[in-house]
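Morning!

As promised:
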Amino acid sequence: MFNWFAQKTKKSSSEPAHQSEPTTASAQGKAQIYKPEAAGAEPTSYAFQRVKHVILVASGKGGVGKSTTAVNLATALVAEGAKTGLLDADIYGPSIPMMLGLAKSQAASGDGKTMQPQQAAGLSVQSIGFLVSPDKATVWRGPMASQALLQLIHETNWPELDYLIVDMPPGTGDIQLTLSQKLAVTGAVIVTTPQDVALSDAQKAIVMFNQVQIPVLGLVENMSYHQCSACGHQEAIFGRDGGVELAARYQLPVLAQLPLQTRLRECSDLGKPLFLSEDPADDALCLLYQQMAQHLIKQVQLLAVTSVPEIVFSDD
Ligand SMILES: Nc1ncnc2c1ncn2[C@@H]1O[C@H](COP(=O)(O)OP(=O)(O)OP(=O)(O)O)[C@@H](O)[C@H]1O
Ligand SMILES: [Mg+2]
């Protein structure tokens, strides 16, 4: 059986992975289980250079809807015509495979060196969930998990992508800092619910990104109100406009205010993203995500316009 990690350590550090094109489907092998104890080598692949914009979807707090936002934002970008990938950076609790109906998928390698991303809903998808069972990943220490994630990123044969949406784990620890410092990240999107306990963690995430000089492109207020599927009545069960006020405090745009709706949870559990529904153009929820995607694209464009190189005069 093909040993993914053993092959990888033999590879020359100057060899760009994207030059090794996958062989035919019949020659494809299954990548073997990743061995975290052997981790330690620096990433050696350059496939990542084909990714134009890396966007981190983060929050300080768990369970506020990062993964749900990442999936729907990514599929909305596809609907906008953007070539988009989705990376599940939640090493300890990957949920992207399930949300995209890929729970049974395993990483495959075409060239014995790099992994092919899975395809779902028009996205190129990678997750540690395709390599190890979650119960194994949970015992990794912080640096091990960070190293595993970097290898996952750099050893994936990414196609040309306009956007790579990264579904971050909760918190502001090792993994967040490693990704922020070791990847060329365009910006971050902060997801929060409107209640105080989530807002204070979202604020920590904003401060962390400011410290590592990653632009925060906007804030998504998830579960802003509950919308009754029978009568349409709206109720702000987690409080009103907490996210909007936090965004105002840090002068960030609000990319969307999303309802708490049974259908969103159902789509995630069934592994069928909203945008695969029959008529997304007529779907109020899809429209909200579509607006979020358009807003994000504008923020990225704006960033490109405002990031003019600084001219430094010196005596040399
Ligand atoms: N707007 C929403 N309406 C209904 N259910 C939602 C909504 N947003 C998220 N959920 C549900 O809430 C749960 C948590 O969402 P999700 O997994 O996206 O959060 P997370 O921030 O990624 O969590 P973690 O920090 O554990 O990674 C899931 O069951 C999801 O389906
Ligand atoms: Mg998640």
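The chain has one domain: 43-306.

Hope this helps with the figure draft.
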